[in-house]
Amino acid sequence: KQTKKQAPHLFDLGALQQEANKKLGLTAQNTLTIAQSLYDKHKLLTYLRTASKHLAQTQKADVSFTLGNLSDLEINSVVVSQEMIAQCKGNVAKSNSFNDKKITDHHAIIPTKAKPRLEYLSADEKAIYLMVCQRFVERFMPDLVEQKTKMTTWVQDLEFAKNGNVIVEKGWTVFEPKKDGVLPLIKDGTSLGIDEFSILKGKTSPPPLLTEAALLKLMENGGREITDEELRQAIKGKGIGMPATRASII
Q1: Rounded CA gap, 129 and 45, in Å?
Q2: What is the spatial distance between Cα 14 and Cα 241, in angstroms, rounded to a whole number?
């Protein structure tokens, strides 16, 4: 079957800290400090101590203007083309990123309308800024379209399943392309011979140590790992700390 997948939501502070930890190895406090510099000193990012991943309906014109400023920017060795920007601007009006009901005190973190001058940024500042720009552009790009295939085979009464996918349209994944997983074309009901088989023995491993990204995710969804029922209910839906305080708590 053919499926469509939208780009991830825009960044709130927690999501930005998690992404920076996964991709750049930065701590939550490092990311907060760097992003604060981009906000205060360079005026390149909007207010960042936010828990919202959405924008206000009144921001559509500003978003289109900001997208235009990002033309020719190089992100992950991919240059943001005029054609790409035109596609994004065409999708702004119908994007579900604009939702007044899902905005808390502040909207999502996005680039400001200032024209970026990357030569004035440190390496870490540039990396964080481009990360925000990538997510911003991705959010208004066309959907990723995939052709998904599932192949099921039976050996006597044992069932084996294998999933495959072929990229039909890259859409928003142009900055980090996904790989195809092509399955052979075999008609339903085909009988196949078995050349060989083997049995693999292994042992399960304990969960890996927490990264800061994983810890931030647990703090956002506080309660899932708590065994005390009363305490879990008390903290449910609240989490531990706020986006602006979790780095200092850690």
Answers
A1: 8
A2: 11
Q: Residue 55 class from Cβ within 10 Å (0-12 exposed, 13-18 middle, 19+ buried)?
A: buried
Confirm if 237 and 222 have CB atoms less than 8 A apart: no
Long-range CB pairs of 80-86 (<8 Å, 24+ gap) are 80/137, 84/137, 84/141, 84/174
Q: How many residues can be counted in the chain?
A: 250
DSSP letters for 186-242: --TT----------------PPPPPPHHHHHHHHHTTTTT---HHHHHHHTTT-SS-
In this predicted structure, the answer to whether residue 178 has a pLDDT above a threshold of 90 is: no
pTM of the model: 0.85
Structure tokens that stand for 13 in this block: 């502070």
